[in-house]
C-alpha cells in the first residue's frame, strides 16, 4: 500500500455506498393505498431519499421534503426545501408549517411516506404555543454546547415543538404513515432520529428536565416554563393514532461498518469493528482509540497488524472556546496527540453526511507525524484542542477531508489503519 489516505478514502466510500438510498428504499416500499400517496421528509439525506423514492415508486405521488442548504437533489414530483443546520432558521420554520399543512385533511385510504434522516431536528423548528423561533434557536445552541448525548438532546427538543415526538404523524391521522428511517443514532432507535417527527417514544418531559439539569443547560425562562407544564407532553407510542403505522430502518451505522470492513478485506487488510454505538466526549474517545492503536503498533495486540480498526456512533463536544471544528476533527486531534511519533498508524474520522461541524469538511486524516507537522508550521496541537479549534489545526497541514455532501447520514466513521 503506497497511499494510506487513498485506502482510507475507499473505506469511507464503501461505508457511504452501503447507505445509498436507491438501494435501501427499494427493499422497504409500502403497499399502495386506495387513495393518495403523500411523501414528506426531513434530514440531511432526505432529498436524496426523495429522489430515490421517485425512481422506484410507480404510482402518483405528491410531496415536500426539507434538507440542509446545499444538500438538495433533483426531483420531479416532490418539492425540496432547503433550510439551516445545525442552528434553525426561518426557512425551516416555514418548511415545518408546510409539512404539517401537507398531511392535514387526509383519510384512512391515504398513505403518508415519511423519509427521515439525521439532521431533521434542526431543520424542523416549530415552536410550541407561547414560544418563538428565537427560543428554539437558543435551545439548539445550548444543546450543541452542552456535551449531552444525542438521545438526551432530542428528548429535550421534542418537548418544545409542535412537529417532533410523533406530532407530524399524529397530524396525518387517520392516514397510514410509513416511516423510512436512515439512522444516525447510537443504538438505532428510529424514534430519536431527527427527534422522531413521525415516530413517538417514551421519553418524558421529566426526562428532559433531568437532562437539562444534569448538563447545566441555560435555557430561556419561557422554555423552562413550557417544559414544566403539561402542555409540553408529547404523544405516547400507545396513542391509537399511531396504531396502523409502520417504521422501517433502511440504513444504519452497523450496516455501513460491515461494508467498510468487507472493503478492507477485499484489499487484503483484516478489519475489526469495535462498536457502531460509541458515545462520549470526542477528545476522550480519541484518546482511547489512540491507546488501542499504539498497543497494536508497538505490541501487536489485541489485534495482529496489519489491521483496520473501525468504529461508529456519535461523540459530543463540550464547547470551551469559540474555535472552528466538529466532533470528528476534535476526536482526531486528540487521537493525533495520542499517537505522536508512533510510526505505521494512519486514521480518518469523518461524518458520513459529508459535513463535520459548520465548515465544508467531513473530518480529517492523521498519522504519527501530524503533531510534528503542525508544530513545524507554528501550530500547537494541544492548545488547538483546548480551544475547540481542530479545524484550524488540520487545515494548517492540509489534512482536512472534503468529500462534499454524500446524500446519506449514518453517523460518524472512524477508520484506523495500523500497518
From TrEMBL:
GO terms for molecular function: kinase activity. InterPro entries: GK-like_C_sf, GK_N_sf, MOFRL, MOFRL_assoc_dom, MOFRL_protein. Pfam families: DUF4147, MOFRL. The keyword rRNA processing does not apply. Residues 8-227 form the MOFRL-associated domain. Residues 308-412 form the MOFRL domain. It comes from the Bacteria. Transmembrane segments: none annotated. Keywords: Kinase, Transferase. The keyword Cell membrane does not apply. This is Glycerate kinase. It comes from Mesorhizobium humile.
